[in-house]
Write a structure and sequence with these properties.
Elements: H1 18-27, E1 37-40, E2 45-48, E3 76-77, E4 80-83, H2 87-95, E5 102-105, E6 122-123, H3 132-142, H4 149-168, E7 195-196, H5 203-216, E8 221-224, E9 228-235, E10 238-245, E11 253-256, E12 259-262, H6 283-290, E13 295-296, E14 301-308, E15 316-317, H7 320-324, E16 328-330, H8 350-364, E17 369-372, H9 378-384, H10 386-394, E18 403-413, E19 416-418, E20 430-432, E21 437-438, H11 451-465, H12 493-510, H13 517-529, H14 539-561, E22 585-589, E23 595-599, H15 601-605
Parallel strand pairs: 3-11, 4-5, 4-12, 5-8, 12-20, 19-21
Antiparallel strand pairs: 1-2, 6-7, 9-10, 10-11, 13-19, 13-22, 14-15, 14-18, 16-17, 17-18, 22-23
Helix pairs in contact: 1-14, 2-5, 2-11, 3-4, 4-11, 6-14, 12-13, 12-14, 13-14
Length: 613
């Protein structure tokens, strides 16, 4: 038997200050040797051990979610609680059976989500020369042997009807002025022009606008902005709600419902450079892990190839659609290096393009390559990408006339909470939708413009399975002064900022586009040491950073365990794909230290079923 993975330690269990204990508990760690596990992926199962040898890195992951009888502040009751207000959460909220009362929790303001930042579009086989079968084939090819074919088929076959639902909801997709038909663009790894856009390059923002407008008109939806979900409530083997702060400075309350929908979005803030908004700190993933919900494919994180890199400016994603319309990638000497890397050149799958850019940057000694649209009609470019053009002008660049400095950045998590195409997870009563979920449709590498589609199609499917049975009694809305006191813990935020920066710097250096065994060992040790930083800041900030520590450690663990290169997971020390791992997902199941094993997603879902009862 050969141990092939290093383990993440949530905190240094030998140090026992009060502040350290508090941080470790929030991070989901225990302060005892119980529950330590060692991963042997060749045996495909983890057994509990009590090991502290210096040569072995172990994992200490958390205890338990909030248990029976929880009452933190004043309980609130709904029929459905939705955590997250991107396309997935909004779609389920609007499509749910009439009469169900919904609490919709969003970490920022309503309308601010990863969906809003999606420039590229939404893929659907709606062209005369296209079909769901072709869309399916492209999705499977991009997924590198790890897609679930049945889930992919459900996605692509549901796409046209889902687009029509969006149109009925008021989404204004771009149309051909002469014919009135929907405009269809092409993006990387698509064999046909099948990507719908809105406002040229503001597709996500338009979808979010339309759905938010409908939600605001729904009297049975109570929206809580600036909310922070802390942990799932589990009673009798079911998810029964969530402990959450329903506003800034508001004490946590138990928000209960027969159905909880986890649609909390992405994890991009674990890296120093990301296309994701500030709230994407892996809160949903960490909550699920603490509750023992099955998660899978955490090692597969997509790095978008073309994020603008201008010194002194925030990262800004330049859409895949720009290359779809003919833009070139050029090296320092302005050669088109992608011609030698892949038959599809700039239209190769994202993982291929990101690695090619990384290699070229190293060879040239630069922190970027060039994105070039100078050979394209400038009027067409400016009309097709108005939002990108405007943003570049604010940064002193001309989209059509300048070479644009770009580099890969953390963008999308293919892995997450294991879920069916209708959202069911291994924990009855809990649904997972959108980027937080792992349904098998993306495999090892997501096809461009399938992300909005997944949240939409499976959000509709999940809503259609809900019933009006078991409705909760009405409760009065939360009023100022009902919070039973406000958080009073304040202090030096720079300490937590330093922890956050260490996480991001470590993940960017060691768990990025290209990884190797020795590099993956380092973040596990570094993340363990972060628990020595006192949590002298607001409790919400501590919890958020603790979530980042837990999620980052799990991702590093999974990346070390998968000893092959596949899709977005590339190991320089094992650069070949292992056919024996086709269709084999690395999953973590169970509370506490959890159990890691390779298997099928169906195995994980078999331990729990349904959302009613």
């Amino acid at each position: 038997m050969r141990t092939v993975a290093r383990r993440f330690t949530g905190c240094d269990v030998l140090v026992g200050t009060a502040s350290l204990a508090a941080f470790c508990i929030l991070a989901g760690a225990t302060l005892a040797s119980d529950g330590v596990s060692e991963l042997d992926v060749r045996d495909e199962i983890v057994t509990g051990v009590r090991r502290r040898e210096s040569e072995t890195v172990t994992e200490v992951v958390a205890a338990s979610p909030v248990g029976p009888g929880t009452s933190v502040g004043r309980d609130r009751q709904y029929d459905v609680v939705v955590i997250g207000a991107g396309v997935a959460g909004l779609t389920l909220t609007l499509r749910r059976p009439a009469g169900l009362r919904v609490a919709l929790l969003t970490k920022g303001v309503l309308g601010e989500s990863n969906t809003r930042y999606a420039q590229g579009g939404l893929a659907a086989a709606m062209g005369a020369d296209d079909s769901p079968a072709l869309h399916e084939a492209d999705t499977l090819a991009a997924g590198a042997g790890l897609c679930d074919p049945a889930a992919v088929r459900a996605l692509v076959e549901g796409a046209p009807d889902a687009v029509r639902w969006l149109l009925d909801a008021g989404t204004a997709f771009d149309q051909d002025g002469a014919t009135g038909t929907l405009q269809l663009g092409r993006e990387a790894a698509h064999s046909r022009r099948r990507v719908l856009h809105a406002g040229g390059d503001a597709t996500g923002a338009e979808i979010e606008r339309a759905l938010v407008a409908r939600v605001r008109q729904d009297p049975r939806v109570e929206v809580f902005e600036h909310a922070f979900a802390r942990d799932l409530i589990v009673e009798g083997g079911r998810c029964a709600g969530v402990v959450a702060e329903l506003g800034v400075g508001v004490a946590p309350v138990a928000v209960r419902a027969p159905v909880v929908v986890l649609a909390a979005g992405g994890i991009g803030q674990l890296w120093a450079v990301t296309s994701n908004p500030p709230g994407a700190t892996a809160d949903g993933l960490a909550m699920a892990m603490r509750a023992g919900v099955a998660v899978a494919d955490l090692e597969f994180v997509q790095f978008h190839p073309t994020v603008l890199m201008v010194p002194g400016s925030d990262a800004f994603l330049v859409s895949e659609a720009v290359r779809g319309e003919g833009a070139y990638l050029r090296a320092k000497d302005e050669t088109r290096f992608m011609l030698a890397d892949h038959p599809l050149a700039e239209l190769a799958p994202r993982d291929v393009v990101a690695r090619a850019i990384q290699r070229r940057m190293l060879a040239d000694g630069e922190d970027h390559v060039w994105l070039d649209l100078r050979h394209l009609d400038p009027d067409v470019v400016r009309a097709r990408f108005p939002s990108i053009g405007a943003e570049l002008r604010r940064r002193g660049l001309d989209l059509a006339g300048d070479l644009l400095p770009v580099a890969p950045a953390a963008h999308y998590a293919m892995g997450g909470v294991v879920a069916s195409v209708t959202g069911e997870t291994s924990l009855p009563g809990l649904l997972a939708l959108g980027e937080i979920s792992c349904t098998g449709v993306h495999g090892a590498n997501r096809l461009a413009s399938n992300s909005l589609l997944e949240g939409l199609v499976f959000g509709l499917a999940a809503a259609d399975r809900l019933t009006g049975e078991g409705k909760a009694p009405a409760m009065p809305p939360l009023r100022p002064g009902d919070d039973d006191g406000r958080e009073t813990v304040t202090g030096q935020r720079h300490e937590l900022a330093a922890v956050r920066e260490t996480i991001q710097r470590t993940m960017s250096r060691e768990v990025a586009v290209v990884r190797d065994r020795s590099g993956l060992d380092r973040p596990i040790y570094r993340l363990r040491d972060l628990c020595g930083v006192p949590p002298a800041a607001a409790i919400r900030d501590v919890a958020e950073v603790a979530n980042m520590v837990l999620a980052a450690g799990a991702i590093a663990t999974a990346a070390a365990a998968r000893e092959e290169s596949r899709g977005a997971h590339f190991r320089a020390d094992v650069p070949a794909l292992d056919p024996a791992l086709d269709g084999r997902h690395l999953m973590r199941m169970g509370a506490g230290a959890g159990e890691w094993r390779f298997g099928s997603l169906a195995d994980a879902l078999a331990v729990g079923a349904g959302v009613s009862g």
